[in-house]
Amino acid sequence: MARRGGYRYNTPMDLPEIPRRATRSVTVGGVIIGGGAPVSVQTMTNTPTAHAEATGAQIDRLARGGADLVRVAVPTRADTAALGRIVAEAPVPIIADVHFHVERALEAIAAGAAKIRLNPGNISDRDQVRRVIDAAAEAGTAIRVGVNEGSVVERTAGARRRSDLARPLADLMVDKLAEHVALFEAAGFENLVLAAKSHDAYTCVVAARLIAERWDYPLHLGVTHAGLPETAAIRSAAAVGALLCEGIGETIRLSYAGDPLAEVRAAVELLCSLRLRARRGVDLVACPTCGRLQMDLGPMVEKVRAELADIEAPLTVAMMGCVVNGPGEADNADVAICAGKGKAVLYRRGQRVRTVAADQIVSAVVSEARRLAGEQ
Amino acid sequence: MARRGGYRYNTPMDLPEIPRRATRSVTVGGVIIGGGAPVSVQTMTNTPTAHAEATGAQIDRLARGGADLVRVAVPTRADTAALGRIVAEAPVPIIADVHFHVERALEAIAAGAAKIRLNPGNISDRDQVRRVIDAAAEAGTAIRVGVNEGSVVERTAGARRRSDLARPLADLMVDKLAEHVALFEAAGFENLVLAAKSHDAYTCVVAARLIAERWDYPLHLGVTHAGLPETAAIRSAAAVGALLCEGIGETIRLSYAGDPLAEVRAAVELLCSLRLRARRGVDLVACPTCGRLQMDLGPMVEKVRAELADIEAPLTVAMMGCVVNGPGEADNADVAICAGKGKAVLYRRGQRVRTVAADQIVSAVVSEARRLAGEQ
Fold first, then answer.
1. Which chain B residues touch A225 with a CB distance below 8 Å?
2. Do A224 and B325 touch (CB under 8 A)?
3. In a 3-state reduction of DSSP, which class is residue B40?
4. Is pLDDT at B155 greater than 50 in this prediction?
5. Residue B159 with chain A: CB contacts under 8 Å
6. Do A44 and B290 touch (CB under 8 A)?
7. A226 DSSP 8-state letter
8. Tell me, what's the ipTM?
9. Which residues of B touch A231 (CB under 8 A)?
10. Structural domains of chain A, with CATH
11. Of A60, A33, A43, whose CA–CA distance to A264 is shortest?
12. Residue B293, pLDDT score
């Protein structure tokens, strides 16, 4: 039986695959965005970019965690000065995040950034944008044109105002994006990735649907400023997950306040859970537990997770609290236990192996999983 | 300007609302599911139901956390015996989760459960199902017919086998559901909520889309056995969020291993983030921080969250690390700070209030938020 990602049922025959939108492909160093390439995960460092060593160490950590692309901010000349070393040492292509200062974009391109993120709304002079376009074209650097909710706010003397309060925010963002895309296309530059982000999840969905209808450039998805991990996970997975389920989105960035590794892990989990990326390591299926439960399963699940964290082979481990759903999940899993009163039944790939006492459950699951991981 | 949920822009004019599927409405105690009613949040207790006091205390806690409906398992006679007291004391309608034993369903209906969750695949005798239907019709009890991935597994002597390996899992689940629905409709019983769950997120999406096309009964959404909170949040929000963004889903249950309060909070966050529920309390917008950051904002965000956790008025508080997106978010927020080097600008409803030193940021945001909350 075909197996992938630890699911026995994960074959085209029975588990559906998401039909994906056709887009152009954009090459970002060794990573392709769009054109049928796997959806890539990006993140952004939060070290000062000018500290090349600290930034490089964080990039390594993020790449090991599953980031395909890492973006760095380059607000100052010292940041772009560090970029050459960062790019040279990084295990993944580096994207430079540029705002306001066209010189930073030119320096980043010269330093070998594989892609530039530009919000042209922050660079008011079209001739300056044109200089960036020409340099990027010359160097083969991709550009993401990323409009944010804030880009449709007009900066007037004493106040800020939406440019048009009578029109939906998503429409305004896409119109603003269209202005920028026209600028790039007029210059013959089509090595583009597009994005329009809001911190309102559904606005992100609507804006991305509009973009996907209008252009075939790859789309970068994310909910901006989604906050602390607990809420950011929900907001981001809802909007990005919704779009991915509609076949929209070629690269994603979840935006968590805090350690960027958390957002990388969550983005990887999102792609794996939609089977857009093959899972590495253990997929832990666990029931929420209910009044049918006859032992304290929660801490055991946590222990198994921790003990199997180093396994790289794709394995599904199910820890179920009762016979209602336990045997069904056991059938789908490489290793499963189905708990009863004071004991549990251990399953290997749907076959009942033996009964284990409650205090042996964790060790039995762990050793069975390690054995199967060794076979793969 | 119209305000709701703390967003200045949250008006029909500019932030889009999700167009929702039309469904029948099903009354579950004081809660309506479908028919245009707000999407409700459900969860399930994990105390032994027979312990009425512990179960009641957990139900109170879950209701305070935002659960509109709480389900309890009733595997034994002792559980249904406790149900009368639980139902009488609960601040929300109670749903009884029944498997295998038709007597438990009859007892739960007699005890006043507002809804029964039944997986008729677990009760093989159709006459027995008919007894439950008649009792529910007589008592006005709603029934959720919930098919799980496991329901399409055939139980044979020594092994378990999918009933049809050549057909997609979602189709098999929906066909199984159709058998059950036909049984209920033949008995003239239409007080139904439907569900088909898998632990595969995209299978849940596909199955729910099929159900929504085929029937106008309200749909209960959830990814089953989604595991520990960190991964369960992503899987559940992706699938449930995707469906909600398509206008599908009238009641939701996120399924986290562990304390059910965590899944309730996440489900509430999901509805709020899609503006399907008005937010109570503080919506904390926070930038992910990047190399542009010039102070350690993360711990400040966490402190503000903790200090404002008791506020019930809907308020948006934005904590932004630099001028790239700070002013734009400040414009959308009730209270905002935009950090710079050693200090930050404090905004109230888009208007710049004053500059505060780094060590005063938390107290300034907290006192400004409390002041505005007091005004509402």
1. 285-288, 318, 320, 325, 329
2. yes
3. strand
4. no
5. 350-351
6. yes
7. B
8. 0.90
9. 269, 273, 284
10. 18-273 (3.20.20.20), 282-375 (3.30.413.10)
11. A43
12. 82
> Which of A202, A259, A338 would you mutate first to test chain B, the one with the most B CBs within 10 A?
A202
Partner residue facing B201 (CB), from A100, A263, A273: A273
Distance from CA of B199 to the nearest CA of A (A): 8
Measured in angstroms, the CA of B325 and the nearest CA of chain A are apart by 6
Per the DSSP assignment, residues forming a β-bridge with A44 are A71
A302 contacts on B by Cβ (under 8 Å): 228
Q: Mutate which of A289, A297, A331, A348 to disrupt the B interface (most B C-beta within 10 Å)?
A: A289
Q: How far is CA A369 from CA A254, A295, A321, A375, in A?
A: 31, 22, 19, 10
Is B291 in Cβ contact with A45 (below 8 Å)? yes
**Amino acid symbol at B137:** A
Give the model's confidence band at B10: pLDDT under 50 very low, under 70 low, under 90 confident, else very high.
very low
Per-residue buried b or exposed e for B278-316, using 16+ beta carbons within 10 Å of the residue's own CB: ebbbbbbbbbbbbbbbbbebbebbbebbebbeebebbbb
Closest approach of chain B CAs to the CA of A143, in angstroms? 18
Report how far residue B342's alpha carbon sits from residue A247's, in angstroms, rounded to the nearest whole number: 44
Residues in chain A: 376
Per-residue pLDDT of chain A (376 residues; tens, 9 = 90+): 334 333 444 333 367 899 999 999 999 999 999 999 999 999 999 999 999 999 999 999 999 999 999 999 999 999 999 999 999 999 999 999 998 788 999 999 999 999 999 876 666 688 888 999 999 999 999 999 999 877 776 544 444 455 565 678 899 899 999 999 999 999 999 999 999 999 899 999 999 999 999 999 999 999 988 888 989 999 999 999 999 999 999 999 999 988 999 999 999 999 999 999 998 889 888 888 888 888 888 889 999 999 999 998 889 999 998 877 787 778 778 999 998 888 999 999 888 999 999 999 999 999 999 999 987 6
- Which amino acid is residue A36, in one-letter code? G
| pTM for the model | 0.91
Interface test with B, best of A1, A8, A39, A46 (most B CBs within 10 A): A46
Nearest CA in chain B to A254: B288
CA distance A337 to A317: 8
Q: Please report the sign of the dihedral spanned by the C-alpha atoms of residue B295, residue B301, residue B302, residue B303.
A: positive
Q: Is residue A105 helix, strand or coil? A: helix
Which tokens belong to B195? 């569900």
pLDDT at position B6 over 60: no
B205 interaction partners in chain A (CB closer than 8 Å): 245
The answer for residues whose C-beta is within 8 angstroms of residue A148's C-beta and 6 or more apart is A119, A173, A196, A197, A198, A224, B325, B328
Q: What share of chain B is helix, strand, coil (3-state, %, to 5)?
A: 40, 20, 35
User: Token pair for residue B139?
Assistant: 């008592």
Contact status, residue A256 vs residue B12, Cβ threshold 8 Å: no
Q: What is the pLDDT of residues B258-293, one digit of tens each?
A: 899 999 999 999 999 999 999 888 988 888 888 888
The shortest C-alpha distance from A162 to chain B (Å) reads 9
Non-local CB neighbours of B279 within 8 Å, separated by 6+ positions: B5, B6, B272, B314
Cβ distance of B16 and A168 shorter than 8 Å: yes
Our measurement of the distance from residue B276's CA atom to the centroid of its chain's CA atoms, rounded to an integer in Å, reads: 11
- Confidence label for B87 from pLDDT (cuts 50, 70 and 90): very high
